[in-house]
């Protein structure tokens, strides 16, 4: 039977150019090329002076970036194009993180897939790379700030447990909205120590990979945002049960997760690589929403699944403890 193609036929040259363009863009970003061009078009001599880079290889780098559409060259002066300007924002966090992952843990992908044993060292790998680690957390903070806008906590919520809450963006946004709300962020001890929580948000260091990591009880709301995908389905299922057990009767568990199959083709393609990366670097997976919902029902909750129109790559599951 003929096989229905699900994607465009692969073009290795396009993939190679994309890989090289990513590395070139990240190099230019680190040299400060895009910051220098934010002030307007510049001749190579000016860019060499502003970045401190050697003129000849800098020109080679700039020409490669012209070819890949990040820069334009007019009358001997380089100017940034929209993709170049984008590197001073969101994409300036995304590309360095993924090029570092591809050049680091992904080097061992064949051995891991071959043996069935993932590398699984993502967070200690991050701890050894402070610049990449900062980018990762800034990326999470940006994403969390956007997602928090799409979420309203149930009326009268006074206690929030933000499981795997990182630097506590959700907790801070929700506490800023409701002066009576108190939040606890549970995350890795190093992350909690660095976040320096104060005021209505407190932190507790714990290893969520270990059974019984969630010890809080009687919470109005428990939040699991972009956390379950970092764990195997066995541990993720147990974490849902632990999170539900931390709720008071009638309390709400909010699970925000990446949608494994969003509608947009580029987002859907990215999720396949994200899923592979999760398995390899964390031992996790993008768990299907039906599985997440089933785990919440098992944990004694009623469940509602909601799309987030402004965040098409995410799903929100609202589970109420019976
Ligand atoms: C993708 S981030 C999501 C952060 C936050 N919930 C948000 O949405 O912005 C996953 C979080 O889980 C935490 N985490 C991962 N593995 C953990 C573990 N074994 N124990 C505690 N926290 C962990 C990470 O430190 C990180 O803050």
Automatic annotation (TrEMBL):
Q: Tell me which InterPro entries the record gives.
A: COMT-like, COMT_C, COMT_dimerisation, SAM-dependent_MTases_sf, WH-like_DNA-bd_sf, WH_DNA-bd_sf
Segments traversing the membrane: none
Gene Ontology terms for molecular function: methyltransferase activity
O-methyltransferase C-terminal domain residues are 126-300
Q: Name one GO biological process term.
A: methylation
What residues does the O-methyltransferase dimerisation domain cover? Answer: 13-82
Report the PROSITE patterns cross-referenced here.
SAM_OMT_II
Write out the entry's keywords from A to Z: Methyltransferase, S-adenosyl-L-methionine, Transferase
For this entry, the protein name equals Methyltransferase
């Amino acid at each position: 039977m003929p096989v229905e193609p699900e994607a465009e036929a692969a073009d290795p040259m396009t993939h190679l150019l994309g890989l090289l363009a990513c590395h070139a863009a990240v190099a230019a970003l680190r040299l400060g090329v895009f910051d220098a061009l934010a002030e307007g078009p510049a001749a190579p001599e000016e860019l060499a002076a502003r970045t401190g880079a050697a003129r000849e290889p800098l020109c080679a780098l700039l020409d490669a970036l012209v070819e890949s559409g990040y820069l334009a060259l007019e009358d001997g002066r380089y100017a940034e194009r929209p993709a170049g300007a984008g590197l001073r924002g969101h994409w300036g966090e995304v590309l360095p993180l993924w090029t570092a992952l591809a050049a680091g843990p992904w080097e061992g992908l064949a051995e891991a897939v071959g043996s069935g044993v993932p590398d699984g060292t993502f967070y200690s790998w991050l701890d050894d790379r402070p610049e990449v680690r900062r980018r990762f957390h800034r990326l999470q903070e940006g994403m969390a700030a956007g997602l928090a806008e799409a979420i309203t906590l149930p009326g009268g919520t006074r206690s929030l447990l933000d499981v795997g809450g990182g630097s506590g963006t959700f907790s801070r946004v929700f506490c800023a909205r409701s002066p009576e709300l108190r939040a606890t962020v549970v995350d890795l001890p190093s992350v909690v120590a660095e976040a320096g929580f104060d005021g209505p948000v407190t932190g507790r260091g714990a290893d969520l990979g270990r059974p019984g990591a969630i010890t809080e009880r009687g919470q109005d709301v428990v939040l699991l945002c972009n956390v379950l995908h970092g764990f195997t389905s066995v541990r993720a299922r147990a974490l849902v049960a632990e999170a539900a057990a931390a709720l008071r009767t009638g309390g709400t568990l909010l699970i925000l997760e990446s949608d494994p199959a969003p509608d947009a083709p580029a987002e859907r393609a990215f999720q396949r690589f994200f899923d592979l990366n999760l398995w390899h670097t964390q031992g996790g997976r993008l768990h299907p929403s039906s599985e997440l919902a089933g785990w919440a029902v098992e944990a004694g909750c009623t469940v509602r699944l909601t799309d987030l129109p402004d965040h098409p790559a995410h799903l929100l599951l609202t589970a109420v403890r019976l």
